[in-house]
Specification:
180 residues; mainly alpha; 10 helices
Amino acid sequence: MEKFYEQYVIFGPRPLTFEMKKNYEKNLSLLKQFQTAGDDDKKLLKCLRQLENEESVIANIELRLGNKTSCTTKAIWKYYIEYLRDKNPILMLEVYLRYCRFFISDTEMIKEYRNEIERIEKFQAVFIFWIDTIEWELDFGDLRIAHCLLVKALKIMEIHLVIQELTTKEIFSKYFDSCK
């Protein structure tokens, strides 16, 4: 990074602004912190909190979760879920899905996962995650709970289908035509 910076200073198309220099210094410091963190997950999480770029945070967490020693660190998974909660709810549900399949005995997280599915369902269809949680119950849980979840998911799907039917172009066209 330092060599690229030096090359830009010498051969760059424009002179460096004060902001560019400050940004470089900040990122250089952060890079050194990441390098110092090494395999220490707590230090990594501290570094991640300083990143402002969402893609960088996600890439670094995914990279760490791909590491055979860190993939079992629940703190990283939970930080990732929390980080995505408001930024990217669908990706958050995907992370919950992976977490619950990886840590099968963590029933508290499966409950949180289902609560998040219900919360997000109010804004967008997430039926695939209902299917996943039903499959989880069939594979690792209780058949009665799987049945209850299936009934709940079907009711939600029915509501979505009714809404879809009620909002067809044909139904709204008479209202739109009257506005012309």
